[in-house]
Amino acid sequence: MRIVIAEDDPLLREGLALLLRAESLDVVATTDNADAFLAAVDQHRPDTAIVDVRMPPTHTDEGIKAAVEARRRHPDLAVLVLSAYVEQAFATVLLHAGGHRIGYLLKERVGRVEQFLDALHRVAGGGTAIDPVVVAELLKRSHAGNTLHALTPRELEVLALMAEGLGNTAIAQQLVVTHGAVHKHIRNIFAKLDLDPASTADRRVTAVLHYLNANCKS
Which residues carry this modification: 4-aspartylphosphate (predicted)? Predict the structure, then answer.
């Protein structure tokens, strides 16, 4: 896996590079601003980018804008965004830019090496990985008036775990239910959100987008 890192904190940036190289992953460039990041992506054509949300010069949303632009230029690029805070709107913006191969983690997750690497590999493999803390915040903001009002509490739980990027087996283990029960809940979620099985879009990703978008507007 070839990786570009965009992080303005030099300690975290070099720490990430050391960690990934120790895992035999190829860090082809490290950058500290959005322009340098985009140039590195264009030059090296990495498989995956790890991007800080807030970077110079304003430290607001340069990173998220750069991540979206990188995906526009290179649609197959996997992007794992790191943030110091729960910023639900940024997760929604990134997912709307193209649902596959996207991750959004809090920086504290980097210190939990196994979880961080699991999220990185999940995103690089074509999945999504949304930080459980972000998902928990979204759940708190869920209201009956949004597009998820038809879902049962259990279906919302399943959708929240889908938003984290968990597969059916992991969801079954988390909720202590059978694999068949999870499959049934997901089938119901797709039906209630009117997600056409004939659609070319990934229904899991589309369902997560419904979830994030509805809660960010709540």
Answer: 52
**Domains of the chain and CATH, by start:** 2-130 (3.40.50.2300), 136-216 (1.10.10.10)
Average pLDDT of the residues of the chain = 82
33-47, 125-139, 153-167: which range is least confident on average? 125-139
At 67, list the tokens.
Answer: 């991540």
When pLDDT is cut at 50, 70 and 90, the band that residue 143 belongs to is very low
Sequence-separated contacts (24+) of 7-13 with Cβ below 8 Å: 7/31, 7/32, 7/50, 7/51, 7/52, 7/55, 7/82, 8/32, 8/33, 8/52, 8/54, 8/55, 8/56, 8/59, 9/52, 12/107, 12/110
93, 96, 97, 99: CA torsion to nearest 10: 120
pTM for this structure? 0.69
Q: CA–CA separation, 4 vs 26, rounded Å?
A: 9
C-alpha distances (whole Å) from 27 to each of 23, 44, 87, 120, 132 are 11, 10, 27, 13, 26
- Quote the pLDDT of residue 170: 87
For residues 66 and 93, is the Cβ–Cβ distance under 8 A?
no
Identity of the amino acid at 135: V
Q: What amino acid is encoded at 120 in this protein? A: L
